[in-house]
Amino acid sequence: MTAAALAAPSPLALRLRDALAVTLLGGLLALPFIGLVTVEEGGALAVRTRWSAWAMTLAAIFFGRLALRAALDAWHTRRPARKRAAFSSTDAVLRRAAGTSLLAAALLLPVFFGDNRYVIDTATTLGIYVMLGWGLNVVVGLAGLLDLGYVAFYAVGAYTYALLSTQFGWSFWEALPAAGALAALFGILLGYPVLRLRGDYLAIVTLGFGEIIRVVLLNWTSFSGGPNGIGGIPRPSFFGLPFARSAEGQTFHEFFGLEFSPMHRLIFLYYLIVTLALLTHALVSRLRVLPTGRAWEALREDEIACKSLGINTTTVKLSAFATGAMLAGFAGVFFAARQGFISPESFTFAESATILAIVVLGGMGSQLGVVLAAAVLVVLPEVGRQFADYRMLVFGAAMVTIMAVRPMGLLARREPTVRLNPARSSAP
Amino acid sequence: MTPLVTVDHLVMRFGGITAIDGLSLQVPRGAITAIIGPNGAGKTTLFNCLTGFYRPSAGRILLHEDDGSERDLTRLKGHRIAREARIVRTFQNIRLFGGMTVLENLLVAQHQALTRASRFALAGLLHTPGYRRAEREAIELARRWLAELGLTAFADTPAGALPYGTQRRVEIARALCARPRLLCLDEPAAGLNPRESAELKALLTALRDAHGLTLLFIEHDMSVVMNVSDHVVVMNFGRKIAEGPPEAVRRDPEVIRAYLGEEDEEAADA
Fold this sequence. Notes:
The complex is a heterodimer.
Chain A: H1 3-7, H2 11-35, E1 36-41, E2 44-49, H3 51-86, H4 90-113, H5 117-142, H6 151-168, H7 172-191, H8 199-219, H9 221-224, H10 252-255, H11 263-288, H12 291-301, H13 303-308, H14 313-339, H15 349-362, H16 367-383, H17 391-405, H18 422-426
Antiparallel strand pairs in A: 1-2
Helix pairs in contact in A: 2-3, 5-11, 5-12, 5-14, 5-15, 5-16, 6-7, 6-8, 6-14, 7-14, 11-12, 11-14, 12-14, 15-16
Chain B: E1 3-14, E2 17-28, E3 32-36, H1 43-50, E4 58-64, E5 70-72, H2 78-85, E6 87-89, H3 102-108, H4 111-117, H5 122-126, H6 129-148, H7 164-177, E7 182-186, H8 194-209, E8 214-218, H9 222-228, E9 231-236, E10 239-244, H10 246-251, H11 253-260, H12 265-269
Parallel strand pairs in B: 3-8, 3-9, 6-7, 7-8
Antiparallel strand pairs in B: 1-2, 1-4, 4-5, 9-10
């Protein structure tokens, strides 16, 4: 071998070396997991070796790694070309087209699956997560404030409706603004003590805040019913017409002269969450192009520069917390009305983590990305049901894959809020 | 020349360290003042006190209003200095909103006016004519400064993607969009190539002559300092060691000693 060859090893040699290293590591790990097995022998446990299985694992690792490396290298050489292409405005056009077709699909879904309870239920759940994702996007994606306790505001909304309706007979539409306002107030209450915190420190405090709300709901039995939760929460009616087989006044199916079907209520709930989510979207995307939204993004980019330009970062932060919390409060009201029963079980940290994963996976600040990521996170576990025990494994692997392939999220490109030359940028 | 700002016996201590030690100086109105001095002389600390990032341990910073009244800036809270005293600064290590476009950076600088016009987002949400007009005016102001600083072509580019020298200019344009009375530039020539440095000199002069701005800048590049400034303040160890027109300061023995060092230089550095 010549000196030149030694100095610059060929790609094949590099890949072989890489594959060998991975195989060595895999072999070590596989030795106890696959190479050894315990069997019962006359009432006692004995250890048997399975060298053939171990060897097959090693071979699979070696060749698998080689193939993966080759595929990744091919991907990386193709990537720069893709990036340049993404800079053109065809991207924005594509995005708009995707948004419009998703909206059409959302509106037409009950037409095609009106008799399929499972599909409508899953789509409604998806709607809740999309709305929560859009709300958290304000705090995390736009203002850059890492919030791990977002579910607390969702809980505030849900419990506000549950208590107001069961104790004081408030209707859904009366409780909605009240719950939003109360959640926003909680957002400001959380915001004040954490004004000086950023990043990891902020994340820890918000995590604690989320837990405080949950623990209070769990233990303050006289107020929230504790672990028993609150049941018998009234379902929303269609402008006063209940979805029941029979009621004192007129019911929905009687008024419209339809055959009674339990699906009516589910489809109404579905359209309700679609409407709420669309209102959320309209609000957030409008706020984004206003001074408020630009100040949120500026805060994410550089807080000190904001101060030097005369921006009061306190109000900017609090407005982001309050807006995000209010939207979660709305979603919480819907959740309580849909379930008819709520308990602290529904508002665990895992829920906050899922919503955060939706925002991060979708691409921070991207509204369409949130929809795609929510679809992945809600639909994938459903599709995975046939894999039974491996469901969460597949789910985890899918998330790791997305973050490895697209570290900035599914849709990372940010659309400017304003352009100086709109005409020029649309030219090819 | 009448002063715009008077710094009066300013002291800034951090624990046991005195970064500024009884500094007094005046920033003449409508002129370019340079602050020079070796590293660690307290120049940036002075900027931080002046623009409200630090609250001085003692002393006063007086702003002389047009009507002759005086206002102590050390009592004004951080962000209100830019808002009410209209003293705006740039940073030694550029602080742009990197992910946002240049135009967006310039609009964030006009946050006050736009927020007021949007009635704290309400009128903005409704897209009222009043808000639309305010937004048009804000974009127009941005467009004018972009044109003046030769940045029009980059208006829709993310600020973080621009070359270093261009980013420096964007930061100045952003500060100008905040409609300052006093513009403070922290090492505006750092990292610039000779052509960009010459452009900067022309820009600073134009800001003084055509726009009537008062400028205060920290700089190590002596060609910029000697060429454009009307007044130079030399600092060392938190004190003012010399002050005057550039030619006089250049010959000052105290200044030469501070820059070239003396016998006990090592002791002083430690």
